[in-house]
Amino acid sequence: MVLIDESGDAGFKLVRGSSSHFVVAMVVFDDFGEAERTSTAIADLRTALRIRTEFKFSKSHDDIKDAFFDCVCRHRFSVRALVVDKSVIYSDSLRERKDLFYNYFVLQGARIKIDGSGDRHFKNELNSYLRQQLHAGQVKSIRFAESHRDNLIQLADMVAGAILRSYRDKVRKDAKRWRQVLARNGKLGDVWDFR
C-alpha cells in the first residue's frame, strides 16, 4: 500500500508567499495487516490525546508531533520523498504542472491512496496520469481519500510536513527534529533532492 501527500505549495511566486520547497512524500507498507495496525494505533493515539480532528503537521503542536512520531515509528513502513527547491526550476512545464513530479513515484503493482483534498484540476491531471499507469500494469489501484477520515493519509501528511520543515532550518528552530526521528527509526528511505 502506498500513501502519498504533499507539503508546501506548487506556486512559484517565491518572494510573495509561495514556499521555497515542494515535497511529495510516499509512505509505503509492504504488508496490509501492518498498515491496518498502524491506522489503529493512530486512532488510539488520537483518543488518548483527546484530539477531535485529524493529525495535520502544520496545525499540530510540537508535543503532539513528538507523540505521533513516537507512536508510528513502532510500525513497519518506509518513506520516500521528492523535494523540489523551486528556486532552481527553470522548466516551464514543471513550473506549470505539478503532476509531473508524481511521475517519480509509480511503483510496480502499487495500490496508491492519495490525499483527496486540494486543487481539483491537479487531482484530475494526476488521476489521468496514474490511470494510464494502471492500464499499463504499473499500478494496481488508485484511490483518493479525505485526510480527516483516513489515518494513513494523516501519516503521509505528517511525514511530508516533517521533511518540508527540515528544509527550513534557517528560519525554524529544531527544523530537522522529526525528520531525524524518522531516520533514526529506519523509516526514511530515499529522499531525492530534485535539481
Describe the protein's topology.
Layout lengths: L1 E7 L12 E8 L3 H17 L13 H11 L5 E8 L6 H5 L13 E6 L4 H16 L3 E7 L5 H16 L10 H8 L3 E7 L1
Parallel strand pairs: 1-4, 3-6, 4-5
Antiparallel strand pairs: 1-2, 2-3
Structure description:
This protein has helices at residues 32-48, 62-72, 92-96, 120-135, 151-166, 177-184, and strands spanning 2-8, 21-28, 78-85, 110-115, 139-145, 188-194. The protein is of the alpha/beta class and 195 residues long. It has a single domain, classed as 2-Layer Sandwich (Nucleotidyltransferase, domain 5). It has a six-stranded mixed β-sheet with strand order 5-4-1-2-3-6, sandwiched between helices. Helix 4 links the parallel strand 4 (110-115) and strand 5. Helix 1 packs antiparallel against helix 2 (62-72) and helix 5 (151-166) packs across helix 6 (177-184).
